[in-house]
Design a protein that fits this description.
Radius of gyration: 35 Å
Length: 804
């Protein structure tokens, strides 16, 4: 087919005929002149040859998400029959794509199985179809969906419009007449500390139905009551005001009887409460002297938050925090989620970290090869000259029948306990001694007490440890401890220690364990217990008593996958312990000026005790020990956008008498914390975020004075999810206009995200954010309006009769 872009030029043809008839002397009928004039007219009229196919592609996109309740599969044969009958030409093609959290095209005879049904990503499916439509072939998209898409469609509608592809839709889904559901939680994503705000919860369901409703803030109920859906819907409104900065999760839960769908009976929403800069001190001491020294200074411009029960800390506890101080807190006292959140907090969010203390910090506290180890300015690797710190370790392993049970990842509990033992052996020095004793009704000495000796021998020990198989019956704990003590009692090592691993629900035959433990303690041995289970399990009290009488620690875990890490932490607290208790003189280096350039400090002349470590090459030390080791006592380093310091002598507790009596104690703590908190972000820069379904939109706004610098050094933005082994992801900015950048990202349901913006060499942190684990069930009617608007924008329609 031929078409002309500017057909008005064709009017020249009759005009030229008329001119040639009147003025015959022009001889316009000559072939060369006729051809030349016609060519010019066709050029001006812009002749186009339509090369498009005669046929059309109809993309049938079928919503397979959980909220459609499988109705699409039941109806697909009928839909396909009607659409095939509506085919107008032999070149028309019907292409079928199934989608939810992914999009897959159905091939003839293929069965399609969508794995992730917790999302309804219509935009993803549409983009799939557009990308596979030939440029010159007509196409339409027909969306079969309940309309509750978990991502916005504005950008997709623009893409369809540019491609000239109309978007038709047909609403399907289970009847909601008998379903009670939480539609949405409306509340700001961010408020300032002390600012009142409104929390609105919208609930829909059968007219007149009543059921219990509960509202929680960070897991604590703030409302328990009944709701009655007088008109088929009800809005609960609460006014809340939070005076303490941080992140808070609100959850709404309804409990209707005989509800056909329970996936929409729970909904959550995070809110960030912003305040002034906050310093979080995690301490072993309720009357922490560091917190006291900071609180007594009227010139500090940050809030001090002291936490002495760290078990409640999460990644969300870092919201609004500018610096964290770990004052003599052991690694195994910190929740794993909190510890693993600190590297991102420091490197990307620009936070500060200070570690100080005695026996519960550094290597003695189990931080060697932990998530925090690479951040510190000091190395806890012990050198071979520390012979006096030699360790003899006996590992007693439960190999009873329950250890053969499978866990996630296709491994058994025994496999993971073996991996923990192997990890312990890896962390021992070549002069240390090891014995491994699996126990059921009898001890089985797999490795009699022997010096590690060489790397080759160490590998042999690891191979033996990982070959242990579960047996039968229960663990006879007395027999295991007695066998371990018989191994250790002849050792000449300065530290003799037993790690007892046992099932908290299957620990048997304790026998005269009290007398045995008393004998072991008198002989200089200690016992730590790692219990698989919880403190409420039947044998938990026995395990706690063994640890208490053995002068060791008790650690419970329900997740067998954490066993290698727990074994590693316990081993490093023993084998890497280098807490020296003899007072030592100090040497000032002059490096303190990097921390407090305008402040003078009279230094501590003698430290009562300290943790032996070695300065890393990239770090600086302001104070050293004046002994044979010349070890760093005060060290600091920059990590990413953040700052980290290590104070290797105690600031509280055992060995802190000299430091607490030091006249410069308060000035030292305040200057160090001020340095860790870092500089303030320049005025005129802000970050706003909006969450729609699973789509997170981030908007960076700044004033004209920053334009040149930001244009020369574009901002970077990072997101980190709470998924295991997640890595920080860098997002791509779009420059919307001068002073405005935007980035978007689709969050995964069930994951909690923290973010950081790097701009002008500083950081703006945000989060936590979550799309909620129930996003697919948040039946928000605005999503249907978005679909209708996108269809109208592409000149599509709601298709009620598939024969059309």
């Amino acid at each position: 087919m031929f078409t002309f872009t500017s057909p008005q030029w064709l009017l020249l043809i009759p005009a030229l005929i008329l001119i040639g008839w009147i003025w015959r002397k022009l001889k316009l009928w000559r072939p060369l002149r006729v051809i030349s004039l016609l060519s010019l007219i066709i050029f001006l009229a812009d002749l186009k040859v339509d090369q498009s196919s005669k046929g059309m592609d109809l993309w049938l996109l079928i919503d397979q998400s959980a909220s459609t309740a499988g109705l699409s599969n039941e109806s697909l044969p009928e839909w396909q029959r009607l659409l095939e009958q509506a085919r107008e030409g032999k070149d028309d093609r019907l292409r079928i794509v199934h989608y939810a959290g992914e999009a897959m095209e159905a091939q003839p005879g293929d069965g399609i199985e969508i794995r992730n049904k917790s999302l309804s990503q219509a935009a993803l499916a549409i983009q799939y179809a557009v990308a596979r439509t030939p440029e010159n072939r007509p196409a339409r998209v027909l969306l079969m969906t309940d309309g509750y898409n978990t991502e916005p469609l504005e950008e997709t509608a623009s893409q369809l419009g540019r491609a000239g592809i109309p978007l038709d839709y047909r609403l399907i889904g289970a009847s909601q007449a008998d379903d009670s559901r939480i539609v949405r939680i409306d509340t700001p994503t961010q408020v300032t500390s002390g600012e009142p705000f409104l929390l609105r919860i919208e609930i829909e369901g059968p007219v007149g139905k009543s059921f219990p409703v509960q509202v929680l803030r960070n897991g604590t109920p703030i409302h328990d009551g009944q709701v009655t859906l007088t008109d088929g819907s009800e809005s609960l409104e609460f006014t809340d005001r939070i005076t303490k900065a941080g992140a808070y999760e609100y959850q709404a839960i309804i409990q209707p009887k005989d509800d056909p769908v329970d996936g929409n009976n729970r909904l959550s929403h995070w809110i960030e409460v912003a305040g002034g800069p906050r310093v979080l001190i995690v301490s072993s001491y309720p009357d922490d002297p560091v917190a006291k020294s900071l609180g007594e200074n009227p010139n500090i411009n940050y809030e001090v938050d002291l936490v002495t029960s760290p078990g409640s800390l999460t990644a969300a506890s870092l919201s609004g925090v500018k610096a964290v101080i770990l004052n003599d807190v052991a690694a195994f006292d910190l929740p794993l989620e909190f510890s693993e959140a600190l590297p991102f907090f420091v490197e990307k969010q620009g936070g500060g970290l200070i570690m100080s203390g005695g026996r519960r910090s550094f290597g003695s506290g189990g931080y060697f090869e932990s998530a925090l180890d690479p951040l510190l300015p000091i190395s806890m690797e012990l050198k071979d000259d520390l012979m006096k710190l030699k360790v003899a370790l006996a590992v007693v392993l439960d190999r009873s029948g329950s250890m053969g049970a499978g866990v996630a990842g296709g491994k058994t509990k025994m496999d993971l306990a073996n991996a923990g033992t192997a990890r312990a052996i890896e962390l021992l020095g070549l002069y240390d001694e090891i014995s491994v004793i699996p126990v059921d009704s009898q001890p089985h000495i797999v490795i009699p007490l022997e010096k590690v000796g060489t790397p080759e021998r160490q590998k042999e020990f690891i191979k033996l440890a990982t070959s242990i198989q579960s047996g039968g019956g229960g663990i006879y704990v007395y027999n295991g401890l007695d066998a371990a003590w018989k191994q250790l009692r002849t050792s000449k090592a300065g530290t003799r220690h037993i790690i007892l691993f046992s099932d908290a629900s299957d620990t048997e035959q304790p026998g005269a364990y009290k007398d045995l433990l008393a004998k072991m303690v008198r002989g200089g041995a200690t016992v730590t217990v790692i219990g698989l289970g919880t403190v409420t399990d039947p044998d938990a009290d026995l395990l706690k008593d063994i640890a208490k009488r053995g002068k060791g620690r008790i650690i419970f875990t329900e997740d067998a996958a954490t066993l290698p890490q727990l074994f590693a932490q316990e081993t490093t607290s023993i084998a890497r312990s280098a807490f020296l208790t003899d007072p030592v003189p100090t040497i000032e280096t002059g490096e303190w000026e990097e921390i407090a350039p305008n402040a003078s400090l009279t230094w501590l002349q003698e430290a009562g005790a300290y943790n032996l470590s070695y300065l890393r090459p990239e770090a600086s030390a302001a104070l050293l020990s004046k002994d044979e080791y010349t070890a760093p006592l005060v060290a600091h380093v920059r990590r990413g956008l953040g700052r980290v310091s290590a104070v290797s002598f105690p600031l509280a507790g055992e060995g802190s008498e000299q430091s607490r009596a030091w006249p410069g104690y308060g000035d030292f703590c305040q200057s160090l914390v001020n340095w860790a908190v870092g500089d303030q972000l320049p005025a005129g820069i802000g970050l706003a975020h909006q969450l729609r379904g699973t789509r997170l939109d981030l908007n960076l706004l700044y004033t004209e004075e920053h334009e040149a610098k930001i244009a020369a050094n574009p901002p970077e933005i990072f997101l980190l999810s709470s998924a295991a082994d997640a890595q920080a992801q860098s997002l791509t900015w779009s420059r919307i206009s001068p002073g405005h950048y935007r980035a978007s990202y689709d969050l995964l349901p069930g994951q909690v995200y923290r973010g950081a913006l790097e701009v002008l060499g500083q950081a703006i942190s945000f989060g936590p954010l979550s799309a909620g684990s129930e996003t697919e069930w948040a039946l928000d009617r605005t999503r249907i309006e978005d679909l209708r608007a996108a269809s109208r924008r592409t000149e599509g329609r709601e298709l009620l009769d598939l024969s059309q």
